[in-house]
Specification:
CATH superfamily of chain B: membrane protein fhac: a member of the omp85/tpsb transporter family
CATH superfamily of one domain in chain A: Nucleic acid-binding proteins
CATH architecture of chain B: Beta Barrel
Structural class of chain B: mainly beta
Number of helices of chain A: 2
Strand content of chain B: over 45%
Number of strands of chain A: 6
Largest sheet of chain A: 5 strands, mixed, barrel
CATH class of chain B: Mainly Beta
Strand content of chain A: 35-45%
Strand order of the largest sheet of chain A: 1-2-3-5-4
Radius of gyration of chain B: 23 Å
Order of helices and strands of chain B: HEEEEEEEEEEHEEEHEEEEE
Distance between the termini of chain B: 44 Å
Number of domains of chain B: 1
Oligomer: heterodimer
CATH topology of chain B: Porin
Distance between the termini of chain A: 21 Å
Helix content of chain A: 10-25%
Chain lengths: 144, 413
């Protein structure tokens, strides 16, 4: 039991650790929410925000249109989910358009293989940190 | 003791959760009901309540996590345990379509009384690489290693697993996936020192708790003090260790191949079928008759203990209102090299233990924004060359998980 208490103390020290780094960058604008639907054509990892891991970004060819939009998902999805080119996706997100015409959607909700994944809450706050559905990879450290 | 620990632990964890600014806190509660806790013919019904608190925090590409859970057993109180783990992981991109992933962690499980021998501390490491060979095809390589030290050193082990998988998605919504794996588990000192009786020409085995020196100590100062031999367990019939004059360890290695085919039908239905074939390529299980060991560390959950094959069919329904229903059937034929089948009187039957299992399972999940509710049912029909392990039973589980961001990140939100 002494070992257990030591472990707990270590755990407490760990969780009381550093606060989240504040970052700057583009943001989720609820006034620019759109629905999107299309076919995944390319899957890439791209740096999106200072001080965070690169994000999984899907290049989606929009249904019935010959244009592509970049859909920003989250860092953890690269290892947490296997998204393939050719898969149909749809969802809700905040649209922004760069001066060169490049269109990007920060996804709040993504439906793939019939399952709806909530990536952010209705105000756009990220919900993809952790959780059994959102964790990056094999996050349990079992000793079996 | 466990209640005292919890009383100390809960305020500490809540304080820690509040201080984990920018991270996410997960609270979950699972309620289990089983008609056959130990999975033997001598069924023991049990109600298990499991509580867990997890914290996760991301700093750049580094993620930190901590998890504490307590499982309370209503009937078999000695099995109630506290488990905790901490860890970190790190993702390193390698170009736009590839990334490395590294994780390290420590874990502990703490039992009391009769089951204290199974209390353990451990560490694990994982390295993985994922790359898109083409947008519709993924290659993954992974290596994982683990070490666990038990209060009773007999069970101490190290293991490692290396695996490779390739999949391919087709526009017909069909996915094929092939996996290959090699794993090796090494028990560091699973043998008891050879007793005088055994050295003098006995059969080389003795029932723990039933013979001279029946305590569990193997020179490690371990055991519960009162001996934890099999007769004390419900459904148990004795722990029969192997002896060795020279000591040393024992390893068991396996090679596995598996194949999966999945088919999507519209946005609602998903079908999958998979087959697994596993061979023991070196060594064998070091414990001859291992009811007690396998009550707590169940062989069907230990990928290192068996050879044979397994076939699974599954259907997934994603219906409106964020409801997901899964149902499946698994047939498995598994042998446990090194493990003897014994009669109900404890006499060797001269057969390696072999189990044929039919598993039916169904699960329903309902997702809310921050809350997930689930209920599941499983029915297992297990036939075995060891009559103690010939059983059939049902298993019901329900619970929820609630996640709560404890702070907001600027910029991202």
């Amino acid at each position: 039991m002494r070992r257990g208490i030591l472990f707990i103390a270590l755990l407490a020290a760990f969780v009381a650790g550093p606060a989240a780094a504040q970052t700057a960058g583009h943001f989720y604008n609820v006034d620019k929410e759109v629905r999107f639907e299309g076919t995944v054509r390319e899957i890439v990892l791209e740096p999106r925000y200072k001080g965070t891991a690169p994000f999984l970004v899907l290049r989606v060819e929009e249904a019935g249109q010959a244009r592509t939009v970049s859909v920003e998902i989250s860092p953890s999805w690269f290892f947490g989910e296997d998204v393939h080119g050719g898969e149909k996706v749809k969802g809700i997100g905040s649209l922004s358009e760069a001066a060169d015409g490049t269109r990007t959607i920060i996804a709040r909700e993504l439906q793939i293989r019939g399952k709806v994944h909530t990536l952010r809450d209705k105000r756009g706050f990220p919900g993809w940190q952790g959780g059994s559905r959102g964790r990056r990879g094999p996050r349990r450290f079992g000793i079996s | 003791m466990m209640t005292k620990t919890m009383k100390r632990l809960v305020p500490l964890l809540l304080a820690a959760a509040v201080s984990a600014q920018g991270g996410t806190v997960y609270l979950s509660f699972d309620q289990h009901s089983t008609q056959n806790l130990f999975q033997t013919r001598e069924a023991v019904s049990e109600q298990i309540s499991a509580f867990s608190l997890a914290l996760e925090h991301e700093i750049s590409a580094l993620s930190l996590l901590a998890n504490v859970e307590y499982s309370a057993f209503r009937q078999t109180d000695g099995l109630s345990f506290l488990a905790a783990d901490i860890g970190l992981d790190y993702m390193v991109p390698s170009g736009a379509r590839s990334a490395f992933y590294f994780a390290a962690g420590g874990a502990g499980a703490f039992y009391s009384r009769d089951y204290a021998a199974f209390s353990s501390l451990g560490a694990s490491f994982l390295g993985a690489f994922k790359t898109y060979l083409a947008p519709s095809s993924i290659l993954k390589l992974q290596w994982q290693g683990a070490y666990a030290s038990y209060r009773d050193a007999l069970f101490d082990f190290i293991n490692h697993t290396a695996s490779l998988s390739i999949d391919k998605y087709f526009p017909t919504r069909t996915t094929f996936k092939v996996d290959a794996e090699y794993g090796y588990k090494y028990f560091l000192h699973p043998f008891l020192p050879e007793p005088v009786e055994a050295a003098a020409g006995s059969s080389g085995t003795a029932v723990m708790g039933a013979g001279p020196g029946g305590g569990m100590g193997s020179g490690s100062g371990s055991g519960s003090g009162s001996g934890w031999g099999g007769q004390r367990y419900e459904g148990g019939s004795g722990f029969i260790p192997r002896y060795s004059a020279t000591g040393g360890g024992a390893g068991i290695g396996h090679a596995t191949v598996s194949f999966l085919a999945a088919q999507g039908l519209g946005d609602v239905v998903g079908l999958s079928a998979s087959a697994v074939k596993q061979w023991i390529v070196s060594g064998e299980n070091p414990f001859m008759s291992i009811e007690e060991f396998y009550f707590v560390r169940n062989p069907s959950a230990d990928s290192f203990s068996w050879e044979g094959h397994q076939l699974t069919g599954r259907v997934t329904l994603n219906i409106p209102w964020s409801v997901e229903i899964k149902a499946g059937y698994t047939y498995s034929d598994k042998s446990y090299p090194g493990v003897e089948s014994r009669s109900l009187d404890g006499l060797p039957l001269g057969l390696v233990r072999n189990d044929l299992r039919h598993l039916f399972e169904a699960r329903l999940d309902k997702n809310f924004r921050r809350l997930t509710l689930f209920v599941s049912y499983a029915h297992i029909d297990n036939d075995s060359t060891d009559p103690l392990f010939a059983w059939k039973s049902g298993y019901i589980m329900g619970g929820f998980q609630w996640n709560l961001p404890s702070g907001r990140k600027g910029g991202l939100s």
